[in-house]
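Q: What structure does this chain adopt?
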Amino acid sequence: MAHTADETSPVWELGAPHVAPYVESFSLLGADLRTEICVVGAGMAGLSVAYHLARAGRQVVVVEAGPGPGVGETNRSTAHVVSAVDDRFTELSRLFGADGARLVAESHAAAVNSIERIIADEAIECDFRRLDGWLFNPPSGSTMDLEAECRAATRAGLDASMQPRAPLAGFHTGPAIRFAHQARMNPRAYAAGLAQAASRHGARLFGNAPVTSVEGGHPARVSTAQGWHVLADAVVVATNVPINDLVAIHGKLAPMRTYVVALDVTGEADVDADALYWDTLDPYHYARFGVVEGARVLIVGGEDHRVGHPAHGTERWTRLEEWARARFAGLGAVRARWSGQIMEPADLVAFIGRNPMDENNVFVAAGDSGNGITHGAIAGLLISDLVLGRSNPWAKLYDPSRVTLKAAQSYADTNLHVAEHYAEWLTGGDVEDVGQIPPDSGAVVREGLTKVAVYRDLAGVVHKRSAVCSHLKCIVAWNDAERTWDCACHGSRFDHFGRVLNGPAGAPLPAVED
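A:
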């Protein structure tokens, strides 16, 4: 997860399906430690790395800002556990060639297999199931595009085939690609089981220990907000987006918000429809069945937008619900709704390996690109190999230092977007007066030469913080869906009182004087 303060956004209040049954607290860090490997972050990537290294007999310490495993973005994942990645194989083939696309497919398939094997070895109960995935067009989509994607996926090594339609009895999708051997699971349950397994193999896991700095060297040094330090031969920063540097990777990532609703499934639903589903709309939609509190639900996501842009969360959740009801029979009430953060690499492939412009014993995992579960599992396999000095065929593909020339325009667009947001220093506020802000809402207000992030709580009390992001000084924006302050430049997020929720920011929004 992002290595930050406690999460206070609406996912907890709206009952996201992965939360309640799996709350587990780690130990508290109460002294300085010396270890072989220190892993920062206990989400999917961090726990996967810790598990593989502990199982290899290495001394591992995990430090996590939250109270337990998987409470950040891992918990918000819809957990499509797939080798049929979101970023199409036609585009991956263009960017990386046939061999690169094959390595993408191979690594994600190995990740799914690894998850399945760990579940069996460690007896983890997490609703894991192998099933098909289906990609289909909107009514106006081109069958030729689907056929090209099917050919590209097949060349990359996937079991993909064109079919007349996806198995939705009440909705005719038209031609669709069937991807065999995909999977789903409950991500929070898996994270809890993986943490327990890593602990059994000797890893030590500490919670409520936000990290304030990471210094490479021999030994490397990880410092926490409580003043304790972990010295290690190697450090792995697995915090969704790196918190240990300013620009090495952040300029290659576009932070996105994605939205999710979970709807009850009634007895009228088509029992043969249990699969993963994706369409090719922009923004696209994705859906799967799952179980929440013993009840079957359909989990539907999509309606993505760039972080820091107007959320209009209620409208996005409503569009997801409408999309689902038009395609799936037997849907009942909305049980939960939430949103999550996706870090989209400019060239569509995650950054997993040694941290650029750093000591050679500092490693990072970032850029989930909408497939955080399998990218996290890949990080466990790849980074453990790098730390142990073993060769890995995927190392070059995922190298965080790589430059993909065919993605040059995407790199440029990402950084132009950042530059445009610095112009917000010169604009007016969202409202002219604090009195215009309704209860339990926020707005940016101009006060003289600076901008102030103003939150009015339910009692009407006004809380002010600087609107200047503590990472690289962009102006934050109010997110009405999550009641947070979000930075469009590099994806940092703060709760309504200015406390850090997501990096790369490592400090809260600065205080302001009235």
